[in-house]
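pinging the channel bc i need a second pair of eyes. not urgent but kinda urgent?? the chain im working w is below, pasted from the shared doc
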Amino acid sequence: MDRKQYTVEERVKIVEAYFELKSITHTQRPFTTDFPGRNPPSRLTIRRLLQKFRETGCVTNANKGHSGRPRSARTAINTETVRQRLEESPRKSTRRLSQETALSRTTVRRILNTDLHLFPYRIQILQAQTAANREERLT
């Protein structure tokens, strides 16, 4: 069973075919020739698409990108606050930032990584490499 959503082009073709042919069954038949490799839309899909077109005048997904829980902590204001605090003292820990901004440590880390593109690093101490060491390594 083909569960992929129909593209806008396919949806327009479905609606046009229905208004031209005035039959759901006759709308399904030319779909396979117009779009090979795709299963024809079900009767329910066609009905819902027509209902959507009649109510809104379009066939696109109105809620795409607007669904889900809205952001509550990673707002522009909080991101700017964290950025300003880091500019004042760049060596400040995430624990201290979370205390000062009244945000959770996880939120502060997400703001730093995702929004500000800042990542923690560890200073690694390496032993000095001399000319004698280089020759030893080559041999």
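so The helical segments are 8-21, 24-34, 43-56, 76-88, 94-101, 105-115, 131-138. and The two ends are 64 Å apart (CA to CA). — does that match what u expected or am i reading it wrong
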